């Protein structure tokens, strides 16, 4: 039988030589350590200020730390402080937070001090946002600026990838989350070489960032919920339903964002938008309680420590209030990210399902609720699965989450994202 003598094309992209990858290792490790230290430094400063605002001062004044009056006072004062930074500090604390996501823009160095200051005030004062978006923006901008001075010929996008990976690794205490984010970002691009060659330097940066954070602060996302064994059909049904409900709740916030954002934009000035946002957040905190304040990671630990400690109605109230607070804080101009508050929303939703139907295991409810909310808020499938799974640290829940992600993804795909363009319209 005749055979085709033409050479066959290789089935896989050629691997990058080791001599091309090795020079990227030291810059990646440096970016990882520095990015992690920036995050840890801002977080530590914010925690010190939080202790002053929410413990020392109210104790000295003889008012309740989380009384309705004091929550209003601190949230409005935080709005004023951040408003002053946005108004007066050079760079105006960066772009409108409703227009930014995990893929941060490269900002001029003069913008970064104001953005860090506004982020620290926000984290200490109690608005429902996390540090991820502004800290990623700061680290990306620093890496690009310093990298251009150290290695002028290196492409800017390489420094961006290193800083994003390093910060995500530090935020979650593991480089796996960064690898998942980068892999998802690369999925729609033409990749030169093999995937792991492209991940080599970012994974080194993420590992250095995660290890630095672990050695300094020992972060942990495990909620220590009651152990979950082997899943059954009831667990599968619960996961499918709760993840879908979480996705629908998240989509409600996504569709509301342009309208709420537009209402605050009509106030035109940051010294009106942010204090008014503080008033609204104070009212929400009065309704939902002090656990609905802040970024939410410490607060979900409190909820998970006693899943039976609140009624279904109280969990439902916290779910809706936290989601509304996330929406308001994003819309009125507080600098922060949406991932960590969304984790609180999903946790409260899952515990609400457990309170309504005791047969729903808390680990299944929490992980499925977080999965659904994060899919709607971030549109990052791998990160949503990763965060949902790491909260319960149970291998038996992984298969349930993979299946539960399917109907939840069908509900969110093709719909607007929780991010706006400069003209106020939703990104699709």
TrEMBL record:
CDD domains: Voltage_gated_ClC (cd00400)
Chief location bin: membrane
Compartmental location: Membrane
Keywords: Membrane, Transmembrane, Transmembrane helix
Superkingdom as given in the UniProt entry: Bacteria
Transmembrane stretches, start-end: 20-46, 67-86, 158-183, 195-216, 236-260, 272-293, 313-332, 339-357, 363-378, 385-410
InterPro entries membership: Cl-channel_core, ClC, ClC-type_chloride_channel
Topology versus the membrane: Multi-pass membrane protein
Record keyword Membrane present: yes
Pfam families according to UniProt: Voltage_CLC
NCBIfam families: PRK03655.1
PANTHER family: CHLORIDE CHANNEL PROTEIN CLC-E, ION-TRANSPORT PROTEIN YFEO-RELATED
Record-given protein name: Ion channel protein
Protein's organism: Streptomyces viridosporus T7A
């Amino acid at each position: 039988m005749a055979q085709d003598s033409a050479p066959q094309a290789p089935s896989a992209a050629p691997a990058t030589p080791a001599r091309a990858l090795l020079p990227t290792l030291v810059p990646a490790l440096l970016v990882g350590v520095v990015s992690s230290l920036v995050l840890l430094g801002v977080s530590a400063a914010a925690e010190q200020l939080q202790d002053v605002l929410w413990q020392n001062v109210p104790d000295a004044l003889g008012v309740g730390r989380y009384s309705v009056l004091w929550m209003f006072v601190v949230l409005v004062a935080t709005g004023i402080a951040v408003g002053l930074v946005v108004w007066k500090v050079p760079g105006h604390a960066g772009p409108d937070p409703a227009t930014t996501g995990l893929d941060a823009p490269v900002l001029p160095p003069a913008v970064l001090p104001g953005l860090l200051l506004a982020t620290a005030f926000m984290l200490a004062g109690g608005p429902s946002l996390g540090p991820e978006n502004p800290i990623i923006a700061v680290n990306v901008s620093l890496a690009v600026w310093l990298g251009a001075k150290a290695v002028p010929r290196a492409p800017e996008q390489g420094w961006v990838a290193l800083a994003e990976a390093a910060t995500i690794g530090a935020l979650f205490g593991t480089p796996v989350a960064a690898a998942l984010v980068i892999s998802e970002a690369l999925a729609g691009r033409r990749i030169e070489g093999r995937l792991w060659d492209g991940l080599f330097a970012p994974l080194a940066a993420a590992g250095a960032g995660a290890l630095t954070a672990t050695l300094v602060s020992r972060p942990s996302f495990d909620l220590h919920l009651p152990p979950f064994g082997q899943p059954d059909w009831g667990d599968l049904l619960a996961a499918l339903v709760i993840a879908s409900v979480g996705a629908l709740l998240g989509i409600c916030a996504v569709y509301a964002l342009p309208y709420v954002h537009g209402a605050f934009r009509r106030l035109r000035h940051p010294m009106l938008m942010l204090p008014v946002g503080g008033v609204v957040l104070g009212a929400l905190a009065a309704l939902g309680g002090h656990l609905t304040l802040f970024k939410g990671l410490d607060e979900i630990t409190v909820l998970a420590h006693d899943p039976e400690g609140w009624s279904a109605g109280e969990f439902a109230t916290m779910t809706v209030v936290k989601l509304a607070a996330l929406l308001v804080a994003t819309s009125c101009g507080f600098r922060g990210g949406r991932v960590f508050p969304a984790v609180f929303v999903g946790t409260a939703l899952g515990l609400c399902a457990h309170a309504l139907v005791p047969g729903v295991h808390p680990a299944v409810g929490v992980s499925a609720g977080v999965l659904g909310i994060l899919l709607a808020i971030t549109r990052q499938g791998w990160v949503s699965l990763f965060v949902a799974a790491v909260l319960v640290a149970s291998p038996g829940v992984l298969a349930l989450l993979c299946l539960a992600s399917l109907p939840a993804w069908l509900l969110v795909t093709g719909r607007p994202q929780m991010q706006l363009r400069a003209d106020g319209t939703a990104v699709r």
